[in-house]
Inverse folding.
């Protein structure tokens, strides 16, 4: 029981690290999109051609949509992290109980 709880805890910790990395990647992607939007907005003021302005506005719209997708993905990942953290706490509690029982068994043998 102790061994299986430790194995589960290690697995969940790896999964949590992976989820946190995915959030960091999505946040980085969002920052890059925001930077691109800012750059496009600055370049619009210097553009004189209506077709160029229209094209840049379309790009901004696509990037904004992509940012929304990043936010949704981060929300989904955050929920998974919360679920995995709760699962980790359950296994940690099980491990604690198993260790306490083992200690009691050892004491009773003495």
């Amino acid at each position: 029981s102790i061994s299986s709880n430790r194995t589960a805890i290690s697995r969940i910790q790896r999964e949590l690290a992976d989820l946190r990395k995915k959030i960091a990647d999505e946040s980085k992607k969002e920052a890059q999109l925001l930077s691109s939007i800012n750059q496009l907005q600055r370049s619009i003021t210097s553009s004189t051609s209506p077709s160029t302005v229209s094209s840049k506005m379309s790009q901004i719209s696509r990037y904004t949509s992509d940012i929304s997708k990043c936010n949704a993905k981060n929300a989904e990942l955050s929920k998974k992290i919360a679920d995995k953290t709760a699962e980790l706490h359950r296994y940690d509690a099980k491990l604690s109980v198993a260790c306490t029982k083992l200690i009691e068994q050892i004491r009773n043998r003495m």
Remarks:
- Helices lie at 2-46, 50-109.
- The first helix runs from residue 2 to 46.
- The CA atoms of residues 40 and 56 lie 6 Å apart.
- The chain has two helices and no strands.
